[in-house]
Amino acid sequence: MHSFRRPLCAALAGALGAFALATTGPAAHAETGAAVRITEFAYGGKIATGGDGEYIELTNTGTGSQDMTGWSYNNVATVGGTSLSGLGTLAPGESAILTDADPAAFRADWGLKDSVKVIDDGSASLNKGPSGVHIFDADNAEVDSVTYAQGFFPGKGASAWVDAAHLGAKSDTTGWTLSTADDGEGSWTSASGSVGSPGASTLGSLTPADVRTGTETGGGPEAPCDTEDAGSDPGTIPPGALAWPGSDSPTTIDDQCAWVTSLSGQDLSGLAFDPKNADVLYAVKNKSHVYRLVRTAGGWSKDTANGWAEGKDIRFPGGTGLPDSEGLAVGPDGALYITTERDNAASGVPLDSILKFDPTSSATTLVASDQWVLTDDLGFTNADANLGFEGVAYVPDSFLISVGFRTDDGTVYDPAKYPSKVTGGVFFAAVEKTGHLRAYVLDADHSHVRIADIDTGMAGVMDASFDPDLGRIWAHCDNTCGNATALLKVGADGHFAVERYYDRPANLPNYNLEGFAVAPYSTASNGSREVLWTDDGDRFGHSLWSGTISTTPGLPTISLTSHVPTLSGTAKVGRRLTAHFASWGPGTVKLARVWLANGQPIKGATGDSLRLTAALRGKAISLRVTGTETGYITATVQSRATATVKAGTITAKRPRIRGVVRVGKRLVARHGAWYADGSRIAFRYRWYVNGKLIRGATKAHLKLVHAYRGKRIKVTVVGRAVGYASATRTSAPTRKVRGEGRGEGAG
Given this model, what pLDDT does residue 553 score? Predict the structure, then answer.
């Protein structure tokens, strides 16, 4: 879900359960003909700041006015809660609201006129206290109450209203109905996504048109269901974006308010074609719901078979939680792989995952068979709970192998390295916060391996899909980027990179279009393929847009002419590698160089050559080059990696012995000029007499004793340096050691 939208409140710390109304007939203090009753009720709302917007609707269902002075509300069956005196007098048929939110914020969220009475419920909010709503008159007599347990409401933002037959009855939930947009009560969806009809009740005299702003004669709301204005910000369109190569005027093809569920208002998010059946299209909503659509003469319709008529709810493994579903792909096994940013039952905590579902199940609630949690790989905190995974593209191994796809460490992708992978392909997940695509291999034990991180150059990516006909990945950004779309292909270096950007069609509004899918070539007609967008902001009650793109667009390239650099030199500590470049074009292209060790940048290594230090021993070296030129798409290529860097070689000299070769004298070993490319060399010595090691003689000098008389001396020098193989050299032997009194030189 894109960041322009209000963040969701936590979906259900505990949902509501059975109601039991407790009334004993008209209270003694009630004015003649008046009858104030609880007519609607919402546990928890979705307003982002302050109270979340839970509310209680009180309606004077009688024929006389009621002065509310001295009346009160509490969440337990005792007097002393919140005063209702601020409601003044309720006229016959009038409804009023008690909420934990700021009254002005509540009116703004629901679009209520100032004439609707709204007061704060004080500290007795429903989601803080016991499970009850109790209304007391000025004589402290309880005139109406509702008690509830967990399980009735599916989540925050839901409400329920009572029918006439059960008004004021002492009963459970019999007679209470969950609100849905445009239901018999005239419910609508608030700006933050709650559903209800606060201030309007069929048991009173006020209708939604009486209480909502913009519904006066001659005006009216955009649609019977909730809509969301995408704002006037044009977004940041990528530089060099080309005109859309298809129809300029896409149109909506869905019925108004066709996608409303009990958990959320009108919206759609990610889209994906079934790769085995081009007449089947899947779509997800942000709130735990997925649809299966089938191609009809008029466009696309909800599949009515196998329990799909109104779509299906989805849940995490074990049937728990409320996945914040964002995007999806259809795998080669026919399973749906759906991305989620979080569990809406704990919406302030990121839970970026890919969930696997079986779409052939006849159940109306699909439970994930598998979950891969990828949050740690993103490194996100709670502040990023609404900025994680959006769409996801599935790319088959067969394609990746055919184009020589390389992972981020520079090696050619080899599926055999991942024997436990669940499918024959890689999942490219779109990240809203960074605008990147992250490529994952998913293993059967629910672990994962990230093999690539691809920068699309856009401020965000909301949907992604693989186009097997073009051999490319589509990456779509919503109104954050002016609804621009990137097309990525595998370059000569084996890495995915942006080939070109497209602006949105000229007459497609810059709405919050999060979903994007291009139909296969097999469905093309008159040289065009269908393109679909989904509106997560549901302007004017519509969320599915249809346009076209040319099958043979003949677009001019805006890619740079790039060349993969080659490396010369020996991969050995102390040696130097040198990069060689062919000319890039057109014009003067600025090249940025980064040397890599095992795929990771080497600090400060940005030149045309690299001296191999001891720290690089055992690592494979490559060079990444990024070319930039105004008006062209930035291109990045990477050289083939070298073999792992081997130990360096110390340049060593044969040592010499100096001194008088006579008992009582001292000999000194001179190792000479040894060289390790400037690295410090540590020396050790071993002295020998007639070829036999002299124990303890490890210094650069040796005192000659009587036992050495008549024997020859030699020395072995061992040199060691970090990152280098040790070197050993042995001197020539001396003359025989003479006795005391006569002496000769050692050489």
Answer: 57
CB of 330 closer than 8 Å to CB of 395 = no
Q: Please list the residue range(s) of the chain that carry CATH number 2.60.40.2700.
A: 648-730
Average pLDDT along the chain: 87
pLDDT, tens digit, 9 for 90 and up, residues 54-79: 889 999 998 888 998 998 888 888 88
Q: Nearest CA to 146 among 47, 77, 200?
A: 77
- Going by their DSSP bridges, the two strands 648-649 and 724-725 should be labelled as parallel
The CATH architecture annotation of domain 648-730 reads Sandwich (2.60)
Domain with CATH 2.120.10 in the chain: 251-550
H/E element, 104: helix 103-110
Which of 239, 641, 198 is CA-nearest to residue 407? 641
**Tokens standing for residue 386:** 């609404």
List the CATH code of the domain at 566-638: 2.60.40
Cα separation, 98 vs 144, in Å, equals 15
Q: For strands 36-42 and 159-162, give the pairing.
A: antiparallel
Dist CA 282 CA 534 (whole Å): 12
SS3 content of the chain, % helix, strand, coil (to 5): 5, 40, 55
| Residue closest to 350 by CA, chosen among 374, 314, 375 | 375
Confidence at residue 535, expressed as pLDDT on a 0 to 100 scale? 92
Do residues 153 and 146 touch, judged by C-beta distance below 8 A?
A: no
Distance of CA 544 to the CA centre of its chain: 23
What is the CATH architecture assignment of 20-211? Sandwich (2.60)
Is 480's pLDDT higher than 70?
yes
Q: Retrieve residue 124's tokens.
A: 């007795």
Amino acid type, 146: V
> Taking the domain 251-550, which CATH number applies?
2.120.10
Q: Residue 682 in 3-state DSSP? A: strand
What amino acid is encoded at 358 in this protein? D
- The Cα 139–Cα 284 span in angstroms is 53
**Cis? peptide before 586, omega within 30° of 0:** yes
pLDDT at 184 over 70: yes
- Cβ pair 312, 325 in contact under 8 A: no
pTM over 0.85? The answer is no
Q: In 523-614, which residue ranges form alpha helices assigned H by DSSP?
A: none
pLDDT of residue 396: 93
Which tokens go with 416? 């055999």
| pLDDT surpasses 60 at 23 | no
Cα separations (Å) of 482 from 236, 392, 613? 6, 20, 48
Q: Does residue 189 have a pLDDT over 90?
A: no
